Amino acid sequence: MKICFLLVKKIGSDIGFPIGRIDHAVESWAGDYKKALASSTNAVFLNLFQANKQGIAGKITDNPAFAIVGQTGEGKSFLTKGLFLCHSLLKALTLYIDPKNEMKAQYMKIKAKYEADFPKMEFEIEQAREAIEDEEQLYWVIRGIEYKYYKPVVDYINNIHFVSLDAKEENNHGALDPLVFLHGDACKKISVKVTEELLGEKYTKEDKFEIAFLESLDAVMSEREKGKKVGLLNVFERLLDSTDEMISTRANLALRKIKNSQMELVFSHGKNSAVDMDARITVLGVTGLNLPKADEKITSDHKESLIIMYALGEFCREFGERDRTQETIIFVDEAWFFNKTEIGASILMSMKRVGRSQNNFLGLITQSISDVETEDDSTAFGTIFSFREPTETDKVLKYFKLPVEETTQAWYDNMTKGQCIMRDPFGRTARITVDFQLPEVTVLFDTVETKMKNTKVVA
């Protein structure tokens, strides 16, 4: 029996980056993605920035948010990094949150590999200069030689601002301190949230301590507005002088918990600069985060990582919100981590609400379709990709508003590695095979988390 969405011949954008082909089959390709590609003549092009543009016929949503969902090893990381690379070539400011701090090492590895052949490239260019007198011809010959040795790939890598936050390095202390990169109500809210996570009931159980903390925070924020360099540590240090033993003791406890921990990225004296928000392409990694697995409960061992992720989330919101005339695109890897707590979920919701009016395109990379479900249309997703997750077949089909029946279940369950279900802002749904085509570039996407080596192995 044929179902209408199996006949879809077009999905994505009219003009955009090629990201793969539509797969019209229901059966499995048994891991042979080449057969899936060869069976289809319907290419998929995508420009995520089209999502919030007005006057495009047929669009049913202007929501710029996008999500990439699926279990590890199915191709989620490969697609994410491909979309990051493609859209970072455009004029928007691009930010990739890399909680596992894995991208920089891979990019530097490939850069070193290509640069090792640059002496040969320079020799060939010098020979060309000696042999060719016509300037235009020489220009194109040199360009050809540079492409032969992948110099454009190296140039691209050199344009990325890699930030690896390591609390062991003092110059990173305070890089995510709210009193360094935020102002006003936004600064106050996240300062309270990270302190609540730090102290738990010792913050919320006693109104007296909470009041004292808020008064101290207001005082330190006032000092900051007058030009003084301050941070969250100053808030607690003021409380040490309290005549109330309970207040001074809890402030001392907070300072002791923070000292020599990863939390020094968030709690500081404000002496160092925050992460630069003006670089055109930024990959922001954090060294040593202890992230629980998706199905694992949060324990005290994860508290430090929670606090850092909260600050990262607020950084993303500020990055997308501060200049509505500038298009920004953010890729948040391991986004499911925010849904582990009520505080994290509220921060994630505030990130998503930045959205269309601020020209912010937020991408959440997560493991379960449950992480992207919402009853609020304003925080839904205009574009979504779902890789195979065997335990969520029916849940995924329902999310995509597809009938839950034998054919659709087989259609989803039979996806091979490198395939996903895609829905675009026009409401079209299709099974696609991901293919970024250039192994010289896709080798950048190889990480510990993905088994996809390049497009010659898996789409």
Automatic annotation (TrEMBL):
Origin: domain of life: Bacteria
A matching Pfam family: AAA_10
Protein name: Conjugal transfer protein
Protein source organism: Lactococcus lactis subsp. lactis
High-level lineage: Bacteria, Bacillati, Bacillota, Bacilli, Lactobacillales
